[in-house]
């Protein structure tokens, strides 16, 4: 429902012919252009031009600023930054983590489960999923590099940048629903490869997941370094990476993934509030000094008068017809898909929610995330152009613009030190959510896919369809089959387990002696894993510091790390997609497809990069060019997909529907015997009257409506963002003043609405969920007491 509301509001605000109190005629004498900013021949004269004709009379090319003393000087002291980040953000996050841990202990009673650490209980609400996904998608590039893109490609640059990411975000729920129905108990995507393909395929996908997380961590660490250096005085690399490691991992060790969801809410809320404050201060309640730069007339004059790139329509910034922006949008689509589909952190956010909440949450996140980059970057860039136009030259050097300094410069100039604190808050909030997600992603791979699988498995040499507890084959069909099958009872409703859990809460993990003959040994095994995961998280956080220092010494550029490293993961998209969705995919198919696709991707990048000026001797620049990236990713996708399909068709053993059911039985058997996925989906299974045996067909039946929602909402959203919105944007060449105003005001109003949704909805929905669980606990306690009294009364009825 929230998704539809946001979509309708956005279309109304964008499409409607808005009139904000000033028509073209009314502002004919309101737009002042100083001739000393445009032509040296008429220095000192001031004249007035109608906005409707300003684009034909004032076009000027800003002179580049010479590389002299920078205009962007840090204003936040190191001590203040440390207090804000370590005691403010870090201290607050630790308090939230402690509160969340208490909530799991006293309300949900599952703080002792290993899976709760990595899936937050598996029932995360729709709105909390949405704000978490939004927060993890908000990288520093959305605040810094989006302004650079607007200055280089005009309005269209940021729009196509956002559309490229949104398309990827809309495709992910459709894929993730397959994971939830084919492997509902899986905590990592490599677990599916292990169940289907064994060691070889599993190792490849583990390496892929680790590389993807390292790429994101590299981007986050370098971006955090750049942000702190541009905003904070006298910082060094050791201070920067120590602060970032603390922010990334401090609260994860206390509350696990669930705390990341709670912190992501605060991060997203603060980010949207900060953007809203910036927009309100610059566009609606500007100071007297900033009015000449931030009024709608000044913004339009700057966008029209400053000459744009040659690839733009009429070389204007006030247009969405930009060749470079469109190409970058397509490249970013592949990059974002590569990142999100192969990054375990994104799968964790999806796994932590039930299918319906996860699907709707991702769609809601797409509509929330979309507004941030266009709203902030267009406002900041046009204000910067207005300032530069008055000066006659760029106020920042080309190097400073490329490093994303437009937004910090504008916020500092208009809001002073408050602007720097606002930007620092936005950047650190984005880094905290994404960084903590990666810490949990790496830790989950180490715990589930390395330690539990190879170093210390509970039971060795199991087949994919065997019971973990007894080692015997599980029955995969409702029909009775001869043979020695598993007869282990479920932990759901197990009286001995209930006694063990109560005893453990009273005497502690170190002194408990489990009495359940079926599940006791596995509970002791998981207690050991709980201690191991804590040390694992600590180690990952500590290793971030030397890793950050190493990549700083290599002089890796932020842009290169963010863009070009995706070439390494893109060739594995199709093998991963086939692993999750196609029963005929084989180990030989996905491995050969991934390896050959990677070779094609790297070759395409190097070949295309060598065609630019300087060739591969200018490696960092030319391998990150738009066409180098586009060639690499297309080559990797096509080759990996074709090879994976052809080899799988030649090597698969699926000959009937029964064979396909057996293949998916391997992945459905991925489960925790003391915390089975049936417990999470008990209400869904009860409505569908599911029996003891769960198959892929049963899961498809139970979540048929969710699949329908994913398909319908995905199609409608794609039409909105890929057809309707681009059609509206491309229908105009150079924007008129009314069109310009409609877009700016539409984005700003949409931002205000999203801010309200982000701030209000998640705590309301989460509070309601906690209250429902509390009421359920009270009913269970009443039922338990009544049962005890009834026994004491020799079977007589009991009323409480």
Helix content: 55-70%
Strand order of the largest sheet: 1-2
- Give me the count of strands: 2
The description of the largest β-sheet is: 2 strands, antiparallel
Q: Could you say what the CATH architecture of the domain at 2-105 and 115-460 and 524-559 and 717-758 is? A: Orthogonal Bundle
What is the SS-derived class? mainly alpha
Please tell me about this protein's structure:
The chain is mainly alpha-helical and 800 residues long. It has a domain at 2-105 and 115-460 and 524-559 and 717-758: Hydantoin permease. It contains 35 helices and two strands. The protein has helices at 2-15, 51-57, 78-108, 114-119, 126-137, 140-143, 145-153, 155-182, 189-197, 199-231, 237-249, 252-255, 257-284, 291-294, 296-305, 323-342, 344-351, 355-369, 372-391, 398-402, 406-415, 417-455, 495-507, 520-553, 558-563, 573-581, 587-609, 619-622, 626-651, 657-668, 677-680, 682-688, 696-702, 704-730, 737-792; strands at 32-34, 46-48. A two-stranded antiparallel ribbon has the order 1-2. The longest helix is centred in the C-terminal third of the chain and has 56 residues, at 737-792. It is globular and about 85 Å long. The protein starts with a helix and ends in an 8-residue tail after the last helix. Mean pLDDT is 81; it is low at 1-53.
Summarize the structure.
The protein has 800 residues and is mainly α. Helices cover 70% and strands 1% of the residues. The chain has a domain of 528 residues: Hydantoin permease (Orthogonal Bundle), CATH 1.10.4160.
